[in-house]
Amino acid sequence: MEESYGNIFGSNLVGSVPAAISGEGRISTPEVTGANLQTFPPAIGGSRGQGYQTIGDTSDAGQQQQANNWKGVFSVSSYTQYFNVDTDIVLNRLLSSLNPVSGDFSQKIHANPDLYGLVWISTTLVFAVAALGNCATYLMHKKSDSSTIWAFDVNYVNVAATAIYGYALIVPLGYYFLLQYMGSAVSLIRVWCMWGYSLFILILASFLLVIPFEILRWILILIAGTSSASFVGLNLRSYIQSDDLIIVAVSAFILQMALSIFIKMWFFA
Questions:
Q1: By C-alpha distance, which of 251, 260, 250, 266 is closest to 222?
Q2: Nearest to residue 197, comparing CAs of 175, 172, 161?
Q3: How many H-runs (helices) and E-runs (strands) does the chain carry?
Q4: Which of 10, 69, 160, 242 is deepest in the core (most CB within 10 A)?
Q5: What are the tens digits of pLDDT across the range 51-101?
């Protein structure tokens, strides 16, 4: 009787799954290694896994991850890390931009580059040159002929926004591709950060350019432009390890000086 019951439990019944018996008589269950089918939410623009996956072709998972990365480009939350700076850090970097001779700004932003300079300093410079440029024009008209009717030129805002935003975005982007072509492992965020802070001294100079003395204006803008251009040129040294350093630094110096002279001639003429 006991033997018949043993035959029943040991028999291969229809629809049953035979258990795997280990050498010591214990029943072992199969293990699935690397099973991570659901990691939610997907890491947009990050490297924290492959996001939500389903059982299927691995190419589908790769396409899904690539789509998530592209979504991160258009997601505001992807850029919040570049504004994660406190007041002390920003003030320290602003003061460093006023001392171009040190040339260590690239080291200060290496671990935590930010886009504060690119966005807020550029925006401040746009409204500063537009408003103060109109004020300077008014003072010059009053100095030459007090009876002249003067009107606020709103077009200054459009010209300032186009010139400054275009310069702050396109010029660093061009130098990023140039440095990549030269074999330098440079980050676009760091280049944007450096160029953004280089514009800070032009904000300070724009307040002094209101003074209605043409010779003094030229002296002030040349000093500010030289300081800003030297800041960019000297900090580019840390990204270039070849003989082309002089060409890159001089070209950056010339472009920065050109922006300074443009601000003087268009808004403070």
A1: 260
A2: 172
A3: 11, 2
A4: 160
A5: 434 444 444 444 544 445 555 556 666 667 777 788 898 999 999 999 988
* Tokens at 59, concatenated: 């190419």
Report how far residue 190's alpha carbon sits from residue 209's, in angstroms, rounded to the nearest whole number: 30
**Whole-number Å distance between alpha carbons of 19 and 26:** 10
**Strands in the chain per DSSP E:** 20-21, 27-28
Express each pLDDT in 194-250 by its tens digit.
999 999 999 999 999 999 889 999 999 999 999 999 999 888 887 776 667 778 888
- Residue 266: CB atoms within 10 A of its CB come to 14
Tokens of 215: 């010779």
User: b or e along 201-229 (b: 16 or more beta carbons within 10 Å of the residue's beta carbon)?
Assistant: bbbebbebbbebeeeebeebbeebbbbbb
Site of tokens 């746009």 = 126
Nearest CA among 254, 218, 228 for reference residue 125: 228
Distance CA 202, CA 107 (A): 23
